[in-house]
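Input protein
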Amino acid sequence: MMFKTMKTLLAIGVLGVMTSCSSKGITSYENVEPKLVLEEYFNGPIKAWGLVQDRSGQVKRRFDVDLVGKWDGDTGTLTEHFKYYDGETQDRVWTITKVAQNKYEGTAGDIRGKASGQIAGNAVRWAYVMDLEVGGTTYAITFDDWMFLMNDGVLINKSKLKKFGFSVGELTLFMQKQ
């Protein structure tokens, strides 16, 4: 009986990860303005402010980010410099490749495999697994990232963070093109 229960929970977890990585819903933003062109928005300097909340909604971390993007044809590099309010700093460099019309892939040092992205109208959805260190232990966390372009060069990013298909937190990020 215990084996059957564990097998069922594993199947639910795998299904949760699979559905969080799908692009379901992105096409509903196809005609929404302003239109997000990844190669244009993530080209040059961007300033960002964010926070991480645990699954109960309590803010656990706040941070500022300086980003600089550069594109060469269908390949872009996005350099991120994080400054956490507790004094920690962190750097990440993404390599983003346009692989088809409105479809992208991304890699970075702490990303397992490739991030997959799809864009429609003012929205882009990214799905990836990140190695996230918490208290000296590294966890593989599934990110379901939704970004929405607003007026005045503002981009809002909401991410759901999951482990084994269960919510462990959320990340909210506000970016502004400089």
Summary: The chain has two helices and ten strands.
